[in-house]
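STRUCTURE REQUEST FORM
Protein name: Pentapeptide repeat-containing protein
Source organism: Komarekiella delphini-convector SJRDD-AB1
Requested output: C-alpha cells
Priority: standard
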Amino acid sequence: MTKRYAWVVLLEADIQGANLSGANLAGANLLQANLSRANLYQSNLSQANLQGTNLSQCLA
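Status: completed
Returned output:
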C-alpha cells in the first residue's frame, strides 16, 4: 500500500512508534513532533521541517 502524506502539518504531534515506512512526507511540517521509535524506512522527508523533532531510536 502506498502512503501519501504530502503537505502534512504535525505540530507537536505525538506519533511515537508509528509505522511510516514508505510514507511521502516531502515538505511536511514536523515542528517539535515526537517521532521516537517510528519506522521511517524508505520515507521521503525531503524539505521537511524537522526543527525540534524527536527522532530518537527511529528506524531509517
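Reviewer notes: The two ends are 19 Å apart (CA to CA). Residues 1-60 form one domain.
Form closed.
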